[in-house]
């Protein structure tokens, strides 16, 4: 017994040391990530400015090439009819042609140098983006590792008897959390963050155009307004997925109806929402739980059911909220869903856990080829 206690203490010491090392590494990787992100933004700005310089240089070279052609023609005329022109005229035409050729040669060399510098910057940007993506991936992996080491699985032992299943479920929960965080980060990075970076570049362009071409600047500002509106819409969508504020304002019934309509538009699965009972407002905890159950269940319908029709029924009465979600999809053998390797089983486990947290009950009925029905009852009389 004493030996076991020593082993546990030693194991805790090893785990704590490992956590400290991983946290330190995570901070260092985050610094690399942040530096790479700032460097990418700097290179992007410099690259945009350089591209503008290359365009200006190309225009200058084209103008000088036209001037050279004109000067050569003038020199040819003067040289051919030298009797009609003085020595000063011939010399002036020659000097003018020579001067333009020198300027043209210098400008062409500048253009070549700018193009080379632009190509170098593009290569640097590509390399820095690669470092950015790798560091982001490493941070996610370290986050999963820290989740394993810091996570307390004791509360789950009463629900899951098999140790391996408990470990696998914990891993999936941690992975799901990290994937959700990464998804939100990716949505923000690929959407609003990228748009904001473009807005910064666009405003720089507008500033330059204000000095050159006011009409063109107005066009750019009009385009900039559209970009800002699109970014705002994207942010609202991300916020809704995290925590729909309309749930507080409009109530569970209205938000669920809207969500079912959007689900139907997105998936092509005909989805009907029916509500029975008094349209009372429940506690925030209950409304959020029910809405998340509906989200999770419809996600399972989308991923696994191959259904053409789905119905969501919600009833308030006798201090309870009764929820039924039924589809006409392929169904499955409920008894075979005990495997912890099943993604759909993980979704069902998540629903069960949510229902259990609010003292509710949950049941599922399904057979191959007969669709699936999900039943949940959640008491709310003491939670209003």
> Level of helix content?
over 70%
Compute the number of structural domains: 2
Biggest sheet strand order reads 1-2-3-5-4
Shape: elongated
Number of helices: 8
Helical/strand content category: alpha+beta
Strand content: 5-15%
String of helices and strands: HHHHHHEHEEHEE
| Count of DSSP strands | 5
CATH topology of the largest domain: Helix Hairpins
Structure description:
73% of the residues lie in helices and 10% in strands. It is an alpha+beta fold. A five-stranded mixed β-sheet has the order 1-2-3-5-4, with helices on one face. Helix 1 packs antiparallel against helix 2 (87-150) and helix 2 (87-150) runs antiparallel to helix 3 (163-212).
Which key features would you list for this structure?
384 residues; 2 domains; alpha+beta; Helix Hairpins; Heat Shock Protein 90
Task: State the gist of this model.
With 384 residues, this protein is an alpha+beta fold. The chain has helices spanning 2-80, 87-150, 163-212, 214-242, 246-250, 252-267, 284-305, 343-357; strands at 270-277, 309-317, 320-327, 361-366, 372-379. The two termini are 49 Å apart.
């Amino acid at each position: 017994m004493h030996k076991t206690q020593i082993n546990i203490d030693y194991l805790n010491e090893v785990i704590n040391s490992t956590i400290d090392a991983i946290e330190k590494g995570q901070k260092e990787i985050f610094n690399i990530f942040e530096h790479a992100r700032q460097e990418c933004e700097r290179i992007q700005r410099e690259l945009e400015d350089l591209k503008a310089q290359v365009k200006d240089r190309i225009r200058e070279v084209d103008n000088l090439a036209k001037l050279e052609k004109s000067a050569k023609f003038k020199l040819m005329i003067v040289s051919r009819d030298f009797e009609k022109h003085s020595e000063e005229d011939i010399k002036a035409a020659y000097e003018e042609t020579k001067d333009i050729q020198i300027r043209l040669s210098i400008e062409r060399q500048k253009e070549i140098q700018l193009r080379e510098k632009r190509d170098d910057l593009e290569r640097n940007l590509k390399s820095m983006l690669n470092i950015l993506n790798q560091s982001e991936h490493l941070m996610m992996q370290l986050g999963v590792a820290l989740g394993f080491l810091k996570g307390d699985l004791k509360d789950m032992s009463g629900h899951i008897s098999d140790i391996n299943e408990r470990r696998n479920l914990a891993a999936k929960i941690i992975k799901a959390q990290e994937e959700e965080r990464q998804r939100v980060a990716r949505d923000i990075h690929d959407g609003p963050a990228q748009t904001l970076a473009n807005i910064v570049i666009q405003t720089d362009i507008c500033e330059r155009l204000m000095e050159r071409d006011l009409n063109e600047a107005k066009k750019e500002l009009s385009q900039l307004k559209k970009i800002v509106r699109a970014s705002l819409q994207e942010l609202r969508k991300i916020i809704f997925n995290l925590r729909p504020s309309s749930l507080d304002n409009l109530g569970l019934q209205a938000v669920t109806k809207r969500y079912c309509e959007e689900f139907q538009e997105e998936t092509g699965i005909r989805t009907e929402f029916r509500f029975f009972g008094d349209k009372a407002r429940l506690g925030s905890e209950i409304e959020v739980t029910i809405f998340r159950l509906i989200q999770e269940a419809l996600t399972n319908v989308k991923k696994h059911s191959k259904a053409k029709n789905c119905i969501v029924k919600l009833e308030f009465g006798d201090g309870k909220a009764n929820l039924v979600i039924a589809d006409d999809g392929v169904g499955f053998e409920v008894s075979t869903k005990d495997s912890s390797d099943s993604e759909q089983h993980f979704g069902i486990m998540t629903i069960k856990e949510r229902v259990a947290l609010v003292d509710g009950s949950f049941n599922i009925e399904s057979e191959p080829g007969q669709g699936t029905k999900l039943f949940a009852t959640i008491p709310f009389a003491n939670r209003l």
